[in-house]
Each structure stands twice: as structure tokens, then as C-alpha cells.
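User: Earlier you gave me the apo prediction for this protein. Now I'd like the version with 2-oxoglutaric acid bound, so I can compare the two side by side. Same sequence as before, with the ligand SMILES added.
Assistant: Got it. Here's the input I'm using:
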Amino acid sequence: MDLASLVDLYRYPVDDPGRRRPLVAAAATELRERSVAVLPGFVRPAALAQMAQDCDALLPLAHRSESDASPYLSAPDPTLPPAHPRARHQQSQVSTVAYDQVPATAPVRALYESDVLLEFLAGVLGVARLYRYADPFGALNLSTMHAGDALAWHFDQTDFVTSLAVAAPSAGGAFEVASAVRTSGDERYDAVAAVLDGDRSAVTRVEFAPGSLMLFAGRHSLHRVTTVEGARPRHVALLAYDTRPGTDSTDELKLARYGRLPGGTAA
Ligand SMILES: O=C(O)CCC(=O)C(=O)O
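And here is the structure of the complex with 2-oxoglutaric acid:
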């Protein structure tokens, strides 16, 4: 599928280096100020409808994960005081289809594998080159949340993630991000604990809108998805990138999220 069938290139001329400049600048400002940039109506309705059908069709392959983890997506550390962010227990529920399960012909795969999109996103991040995540499962994954499912506050293991809102739940399922809570040199555990305990001063809430492409800087910004409600599930495609080549997730995260490891080890 070509890019013009996937993306609304009139509104978002990402394929034209001259015309995309203002878009890049606007998204970069949003990302810098709020740790999230939203491009509403990025994917064209026909492609989006096909992606929603694909999410439904692939759902039987999804791995259901119900985790009890710290915001760092690892096991809570029992040697720390219970209020320490690394000691906290938080529950998340999600069903995930991995990159290697998404058919080669799926439109969402064409979007993820588009070099034009990669260049556009590199521009937004202000880096000369961006790399697709080396995680063979998590590079592109389809994430479905059903009634009662939520994703607790967490940091990602990649610099940033691009999510595409594919199909809206009946209610709930909003994305919230607490901007730049930690840095690469400073874990800022007090600030992390404050967000976990309800401080909303740095929180941006993004309501679910199918077709929106959203970039968020998840390695340093805490983020979560509020509880999904109602009969219709929430479908999102997560397109992961990193500023360094070869970035992969831990085996612990792969087992939790996909129930297996490359090479076939199952949880
Ligand atoms: O489903 C979403 O909107 C966000 C997913 C998320 O938090 C993540 O991939 O880290």
C-alpha cells in the first residue's frame, strides 16, 4: 500500500521536505513542551477501517498480559521502602499482537516500514537519523484493551513511541502523560512518586480519537492509559523507534508482554 493511501498527505505532507517543515516544527514544539505531540486525522479513513478489521482478525493471536510491575516495567524491588517508585506494585492489563504476527500485507505494517514516516519522525525529534526498534515483537505491536483493562503509570524502554489510535473503546482509554519526569542522569524518584500519588501538575490528557498519530517521549515521561469501559475494545498500533540502532527490550519485558522470547521460549 502506498503512503498516499495510508496518510492524509493534503493535511500532512510528510513526503515533501519543503512543505512538511512547519509540521515538523509544530510537532517538535508540542513534544518539547508536553512530551506528547498529536496529529489528528493522520491516517485516511479507508486505511483506518482496514487496520481496525486487521486488529479484530488478529486478536485471537494476541498474548494476554496481566502484570503486577513497577513503573519501570520490572518486578517491584522488595528491598526498598514500599513508597519508593521501584518498590511499587501496579496492575496493567493488555492483549498484544507482536510484530512477527502482523501479515506482510497489512497497511499498518506499510506505515511502520515507511522510510518517509521515519524521516518525518526524525525531523520532529531533531535527530539526523532514527532507527526502528530492534525488538522483533515490540517494534510494531497491536495493543487491545477490553472493558476493565488499564495501563498503569510507567516509563518505556525505548526513547519514544508513536501510537496510532485505530478503534475507540465505548468509553475510557484516555492517554495521560506526565512530562519529562526523569532525565538520563537523574531518576528524580521524588517527582516520580508525586505523579504516582496523584500530582497532576505536569499531566497532559489526550482523549482517544481514531486516526490520530501520537508521538510520546516515554523513556523519561511517565504515562498511562485510563480504564477502558464498555463492549467495544480499544485498538492501538504502537510503532517504536530509538535514536540508537539495535535498541531492544529486556527478556523480562518480552515474556511479560508477548509470552515468549525470540527463538521460541514460551513463558
Ligand atoms: O496504548 C497507548 O495509548 C499507550 C501505550 C503505552 O503506554 C506504551 O506503549 O508504553
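For your comparison, keep in mind: The mean pLDDT is 94.
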